[in-house]
Amino acid sequence: MSDSNSHDPNQMTGAAMIVRAMKDHGVEHIFGYPGGAVLPIYDEIFQQSDVQHILVRHEQGAGHAAEGYARSTGKPGVVLVTSGPGATNMVTPLADALMDSIPLVCITGQVPTHLIGNDAFQECDTVGITRPCTKHNWLVRRIEDLAKVLHEAFYVATSGRPGPVVVDVPKDVQFATGTYHPPRKADVHVSYVPKTKGDPAQIRKAVALLANAKRPVIYSGGGVVNSGPEASRLLRELVEITDFPITSTLMGLGAYPASGKNWLGMLGMHGTYEANMTMHGCDVMLCIGARFDDRITGRTDAFAPNAKKIHIDIDPSSINKNIRVDVPIIGDVATVLEDLLGVFKAEAKKPDIKPWWQQVASWRARNSLAYKKSSDVIMPQYAIQRLYEATRGRDTYITTEVGQHQMWAAQFYGFEQPKRWMTSGGLGTMGYGLPAALGVQVAHRDSLVIDIAGDASVQMTIQEMATAVQYELPIKIFILNNQYMGMVRQWQQLLHGNRLSHSYTEAMPDFVKLAEAYGAVGMQVFKPSDLDGAIQDMIKVNKPVLFDCRVAALENCFPMIPSGKAHNEMLLPAEATDEATAAAFAGGKALV
Amino acid sequence: MTQPASAYFMEERHDPNETHTLSVIVQNEPGVLARVIGLFSGRGYNIESLTVSETEAQKHLSRITIVTTGTPMVIQQIKNQLDRMVPVYRVVDMTLSGRSIERELAMVKLRGVGEHRVESLRLAEAFRARVIDASTESFVFEITGNSSKINQFIELMRPLGLVEVVRTGVAAIGRGAEGM
Ligand SMILES: Cc1cc2nc3c(=O)[nH]c(=O)nc-3n(C[C@H](O)[C@H](O)[C@H](O)COP(=O)(O)OP(=O)(O)OC[C@H]3O[C@@H](n4cnc5c(N)ncnc54)[C@H](O)[C@@H]3O)c2cc1C
Ligand SMILES: Cc1ncc(C[n+]2csc(CCOP(=O)(O)OP(=O)(O)O)c2C)c(N)n1
Ligand SMILES: [Mg+2]
To answer: Under which main EC class is this enzyme filed (chain B) (predicted)?
Structure first.
């Protein structure tokens, strides 16, 4: 009687179900940090070897590492943290992943069900706190529900527009025994069935617009990367057969190769002149998996004023949110592009857009990314260019922190493939890049993984150097050290009368000694002539490296669309004199 | 006008607001109402009225009726945001469909003697409000109808000794044979 029960392989504790569900969903690595409310799960992890656990040094690090892992593989990132402070430390990565559409499954421990609501030790309302920063979340009060919820969690995180989910599991449910069942169709959440196939009538309308365009542009975004490798392939084919110019958001870099002849560079606030002018002047805009973010549109009433707009997006709430479009197509990028290409090839011819390309060439000739070269100090742009030259032939992944260095990386590092570029775009989280690099390296042991960092950002999650050393993850932290929170200082110079309030990186640590204290390798360069050699040394070291690259302190990031201006009112580096800047930013006191 | 220098783009929008009634069919699971309300407060949408109750117990379905105001673009955004929530099955814009009946129930308490009492009873009859509690110096009326009828009734009761009002908020259903 009890014998037959104990031999049922699907009878197990809640803690065992969690580990089992991970295996069933193909999870090989999880990032986490233990505590009282997850000890039963840690006990299960200890007794198996299929799922490898990476111990971070702060739960935020686990979250960003899982994001890097997810973005570079296309698989969900999995996180395990304890109740209370463990869960609250995860809030930033969850919000980050929600903004940037990254699939995460986060398991949090919770106090036993009978103590919930009693201000028990390390209790917090995890589902309440994480509700607005997850795609969905669950508190599992009964062992009978656990298997189903775990499978649902993987489904919701990875389907449609991907995003983070939280499963909060009270400790008594982890101890309780119940019946596990493997993933099955019925665990698909019945009320959540995203549409992936585009409406054929809309696709026909889109093709008609494209075929008759005189001044077309393709504006692609993170959704192409989300959709998978097939989407990037189809995007390239579309550019090939239409010969349209193409730009991309920060999140979509690499979907179309930077070396491609139709590439205009990134668009938006710090995008190239040619990308923004092409957007402004186009008559047909094809937006593919991008969300008309305010860094892109500038003034919405002056955004591409003469364009018919086509928008392909899997999330209907992205459509007509900021910009009204003429032909919305709801569906997955790869699926829609396949259908669209089919119709285009069968029924349309590429339009003659020679005059448009001549116009684009004249914008390109402005060379909007030009900067002053120097032989005394390392210009930050130059540092990225040299890093790019030294690593372009290799199997390289780049992550970043947030600030000027992030924008320079986007402008000067050429991405040829999707999923090679991990950056915090929507939330703009300083401290993202180092742990994200860690996550990427866990997934790609033999690849070169570089975090292009800022001196201020990197200090926000620097403790994860210990994780890198522990797991022998040879990540390279390439710090563009300008001794300032450069991006903040730039805004203060432009908007706040040059009053540099608290944007200087005071008491800068000695990064070389810091690296050594962690058991990693520290390097430092000051002179342009030493840079190439140092980069080569950095690449050769098979250990984590903190690379302190001292760059020109006061360099600012251009081009730039000043606030409240349209795409054709960009500020170019050569024009960014004090007077021009003052005029461009004329107005009262800043609000942010 | 020049805007204050800022990292954000500030624009005024002048589209006129509209009022819409939305019916939302949701999985009746813990926290679902908090999710819906959190969406409205988090994204700065208006809630004029909200009612919720389980309507199909065996399928664990509840129906939420929300009356909201916003520009047409915002109303569309509200519907899309609701629709993509995991426990939401369907969102129907009862105002757009143009074929819906809306009802609200209110209980209205009056204190008064003499002429005012007589007048209030006379009006109540005209509005088909029922007396559901009475004392020598008070009445409680129950009235159902669409919101404007109830507003009108309350305004008429005000000078007659209105003490308090409680309203359920709007429930809406489509006309004809079809369900939603
Ligand atoms: C300091 C700083 C400066 C910045 N400056 C710039 C700048 O100059 N230029 C710039 O571009 N960005 C800039 N950003 C980033 C910006 O804030 C946004 O994160 C970014 O522009 C959004 O990119 P996206 O539109 O591609 O959308 P994402 O956030 O990547 O969203 C993807 C869109 O695709 C959809 N989608 C997802 N999966 C699919 C699928 N399978 N099929 C179809 N659709 C799908 C989603 O629903 C969503 O609408 C900056 C960020 C920071 C921190
Ligand atoms: C967690 C967090 N806090 C504050 C900010 C605001 N912020 C944006 S960029 C920046 C400065 C970044 O400095 P650094 O890392 O040195 O990069 P730099 O701009 O100098 O390249 C700050 C404080 C942020 N994005 N994230
Ligand atoms: Mg800096």
So the answer is: transferase
